[in-house]
Amino acid sequence: QVQLVESGGGLVQAGGSLRLSCAASGRTSSTYNMGWFRQAPGKEREFVAAISRSGSSTYYVDSVKGRFTISRDNAKNTVSLQMNSLKPEDTAVYYCAAGIHALGLPRPRDSDYWGQGTQVTVSS
After folding, report:
1. How far apart are alpha carbons 118 and 95 in whole angstroms?
2. C-alpha dist (Å) from residue 58 to 13, 35, 49, 91, 112
3. Long-range contact list for 66-70, CB < 8 A, 24+ apart?
4. In terms of C-beta distances under 8 Å and separation of at least 24 residues, what long-range contacts does 43-47 make, across chains too?
5. What is the pLDDT along the chain (124 residues), one digit of tens a residue?
6. Are 15 and 37 in contact (CB under 8 A)?
7. How far, in Å, CA of 85 to CA of 69, rounded?
8. Count of C-beta atoms within a 10 Å radius of residue 89
9. HEC states along the chain?
């Protein structure tokens, strides 16, 4: 019911910053909990951050707390992930997710919709 398109990935040095954006289609996108997952080579897809429908509540995996900030603009149907102080272990394909049923450390199976992913590579 919703299409998601990520952008903003790229190559950055350790300690640098990137801002990922996700454009959601449809006028009903504001009704969804949204967030970001990531998948590194040889690893399972893991939760990174989530944001409630209104944007009033945010959730993060411990490893990115204090470094990443998720936000959304429902008027523009976008959700963003500001990533600061990047580390090599942050290297992964990052996926935008919508329709997250549980915001507390959700698993990939808890999300209804996915973007195509955008590569983030952090060099040491």
Report:
1. 7
2. 27, 9, 7, 22, 19
3. 70/35, 70/36
4. 43/92, 44/108, 45/95, 45/108, 47/105, 47/106, 47/107, 47/108
5. 789 999 999 999 999 999 999 999 876 666 789 999 999 999 999 999 999 998 999 999 999 999 999 999 988 889 999 999 999 999 999 999 998 888 888 899 999 999 999 999 999 9
6. no
7. 12
8. 11
9. CCCEEEECCEEEECCCCEEEEEEECCCCHHHCCEEEEEECCCCCCEEEEEECCCCCCEEECHHHCCCEEEEEECCCCEEEEEECCCCHHHCEEEEEEECCCCCCCCCHHHCCEECCCEEEEEEC
The residue whose two tokens read 């969804």 is: 32
Residue 96 is which amino acid? C
DSSP lists the bridge partners of residue 19 as: 82
The one-letter amino acid code at 63 reads: S
